[in-house]
Amino acid sequence: EREVWLADVNSGVVQPLLKNQSSQWGASFSPDGHQMAFVSDESGRPEVYVQAFQADSAPHLVGQRHQVSKDGAWVVRWRPDGRELIFLGIDNWLRASVFPEQALDGKSSPLFRIPGTSQYGTMSDFQFDVSRDGQRLIMSTTGSVQPPPFTVLGNWKANFRTPYCRCAPVQQADTRSEAHPHRAPASMRAPHGHKRTARTLRR
Hints:
Number of strands: 12
Strand order of the largest sheet: 3-4-5-6
Radius of gyration: 37 Å
Order of helices and strands: EEEEEEEEEEEEH
Structural class: mainly beta
Number of helices: 1
Distance between the termini: 95 Å
Oligomer: single chain
């Protein structure tokens, strides 16, 4: 069985918060500290619940316990502003429930399905979290998804170093012939019987 315990970091006192015949885990407090979401299998399968929390000399849950998920769920997080509960179903669908409007009535909206098979009931410790602005989710892919290729490049400094080339100075070709210093070489003269002409293009 799994239980949720509460530890006071100042006094060091540890006491049970959720302890009964069912298994409970994954407790997550709302940003204002007045609500606690958690997972329990009291219905026969894991579901997300939310209940008011009272932090006094003897912290405890108060009021009615509301079931948020309907088709099985096992990981839950609060959006940082406390206006939404985001949870992962055992079918690998990530869903969101607006708090308190939807959450207290057991309603939620699908976000997207995480690729791969569900890791619920396996040794995989899948986790996710919500960014501070509530607009992004960070998570690891499930174990059944083939990871992308990972390439290791060794001695990369030598491979990317710009090679130093010691080259001979370039000599300018002489276009004059030896016999006629002021005459262009034969390779540059027009064939016999042809004259080279220069034309001026006028606009």
